[in-house]
User: Fold this.
Amino acid sequence: MVQQPQPQPQRPGWWRDAAIYQVYPRSFADGNGDGVGDLAGIRNRLPYLADLGVEAIWFNPWYPSPMADGGYDVADYRDVDPVFGTLADAEKLISEALDLGIRTIVDIVPNHISDAHPWFRAALAAPPGSPERERFHFRPGRGADGELPPNNWVSEFGGVPWTRTTDPDGTPGEWYLHLFATQQPDLNWDHPEVRAEFEDVLRFWFDRGAAGVRIDSAALCTKDPALPDFDPASDPHPFVDREELHGIYRSWRRIADSYPDPRALIGEVWLPDAERFVRYLRPDELHTAFNFDFMTRAWDADQLRASIDTTLDLHAPVGAPATWVLANHDVTRTVTRYGRADTRFDFAAKAFGTPTDPALGLRRARAAALLSLALPGAVYLYQGEELGLPEVEDLPLDRLQDPMHFRSGGTDPGRDGCRVPLPWSGTAPPYGFTRQDVDPWLPQPAGWEALTVEAQRADPGSMLNLYRSALRLRRSTAALREGRFSWLESAPGVLSFRRGEDFGCLVNLSDAPVPLPEGGRPLLASAELTGGRLPVDAAVWLG
Assistant:
């Protein structure tokens, strides 16, 4: 048994209202000067995160991986990819973060593994019907010579989710299922070895001090064993939100609860049916899950209010906390999205050349920050959002790496634009991310000198200082931890609510300034207040 780092004393249920910072390791900070972010770089920047005021860090995968999908093609769940460092570096990072009062959440990817994983290599080397292949979904093809895929499913990345193998004699063989990239074969969760493996992986990281896990594609793992054709108009879904998932997560919850300081299970659950979504949050399943409904809504008062109401109403009966997310490593950055005519996020609508107004987007993103941080529950902050970084939409095509771009035939910009390395200091790339003479793994744009951490620390009105002030108030204001949420009467296009008896939040999404309520004392505003009025696309916290 590995000696566990001892977490700093904290309130039970820290995950219910924590401010959690998402780190995409390749793009946060480079400690060894090779142009790729790593664990040494993160460790060096831990004081920055402590000063920002976050209480936990969720790390995107740091495991050994060929990086066919940004690390979500995992070759070994119990080690660290050499590009990021070593397992010992991860253990030091977890421990040093705990010393600063910051907990660690690791990413677990249960739906699929890398085609470089020993299990899949063994499956390819074994004949059809072998035990090695039973951990995956291998099937003969259809058609006279098996030349057609086994069913009509569509990949989550677009296209056919089946790839045909080649037998040792060079002839075409069986097909294997991969709901994502070709290099990400899906696991068979009806197989007891798959279930036992991931239970052991949970213990491996919990024993090293991880405070929780974020579960990637949590609603996709189990499949209809028959792998039938699928007609969305009439058939039950063969691989989304299947009932067998709940038994898996109940077993994980028992493991998480077995630790003296119980660990947290956080699901990535993309479901359009909110009532189906909340079933994953029953008291013996996941602790919490990402609220994608709020993140994808337009900058519109009625839509946001409806999302807030639905979220709080659905979470209440199961006693689970809501979560509030504006962005992550998969979606268009908030500043860019909110500057567009259509401010929703929709994977299907992503396209090159969509116009945006950066100043408008920044103004709205500042207001959205105060809105999300004032709502009851936990909040997730994607790295660079606290700097007001825009989506980088002019990356050279020969530098793009995201498989979503390539599988779309080049029509989808992919997700690389929100994964560009952070700017820390200086007036030109690489802005302190890596050594001055090194080109980062994704190029940073010219013109980011005003967005660096160094520049924003010196600017009282910067996005960084807005977040720092808001997170400090959030931690020190009892009403923002425990205060009951209630809407207040407001004009059309305005959101006004109270937390407890002595804290209020006003967000103006209308087309004209609105007066501040009488007796309210401004604590923090996203824009300058003039004449006792809140400008358009602005928010204010009131005491």
